[in-house]
Amino acid sequence: MKVTVFSGTADGRKLCEWLTEQNVKVKACVATGYGASLMSGTDVHAGRLDEQGIEKIISGSDIVIDATHPYADKVTRNISEACREAGIRCMRLVREETKCRGAIYVESVSAAAEYLKNKHGKIFVSTGSKELYRFSEIRNRVSARVLDTDDVRKKCECLGIKDIIYKAPPFSYEENMKDFDGCKFLVTKDGGKTGGMPEKLKAAESLGMTVIIVKRPAEENDGMESEDIKKYMKKILEESNAKGDGWKP
Question: What are phi and psi of 116, to 5 degrees?
């Protein structure tokens, strides 16, 4: 039986490893070469996929697991639609949301940039490189942390933001304390516990920063946390073994 996992997060990577340990044939799909470099022992497809590409990748799959980032709502919709059309069971892996009293919640990265336009003080942006350009107008007050890849460096060099930290997660409380030092505002997405949100918030609180959180897109369907997906898969494995047909990779 074949399981296709749309990954790109630590949760997805760990789930692929777990499925492989259960002797399940896994096909992992990640958006970038960097994401592919983190995968091991798994058949990996690297590259962004449109709707037709998703349909082709999932062909022949028995189950599809969408473990993409909580903010990759367009990709999630495309995966869900492709599975519906193909009649394949799709499970959405979700992360528990972080509750942060005193934080300012905004609808988008652009809304965060607009809110901070007329504020005073240095801003630390940790929402990634994709929409960092939103802060170009106030670039002299911005410090950002993004992945250290050639593509990201090329993209960021055009923005005129001089204070950019290039490195890969996870980030500890101590690293955040060092990186955030001197900043009054923290702009972040809610990546949950796996995405290092507790360490970010603890450092921001220690430094007396104002936290601005970009809200997660609404999930169209109910999702399952990682442990729940594992329990579901274990149940299928046990039932299959009891019937004697096995779970053949």
Answer: -85, -5
Sequence-distant (6+) residues with CB within 8 A of 192 are 70, 95, 96, 97, 98
Using CB atoms within 10 Å of the CB of residue 175, give its burial: 0 to 12 exposed, 13 to 18 middle, 19+ buried.
middle
| Lowest mean pLDDT, pick from 6-20, 104-118, 123-137 | 6-20
The number of beta carbons lying within 10 Å of the beta carbon of residue 187 is 26
Q: What pTM, to 2 d.p., does this model score?
A: 0.89
pLDDT of residue 236 exceeding 70 = yes
Choose between 60 and 237: higher pLDDT.
Answer: 60
Helix (H, G, I), strand (E, B), or coil: what is residue 172? coil
Q: What ranges make up the beta strands (E) of the chain?
A: 2-6, 25-30, 43-46, 63-66, 89-92, 104-106, 123-126, 142-146, 163-166, 185-189, 210-214
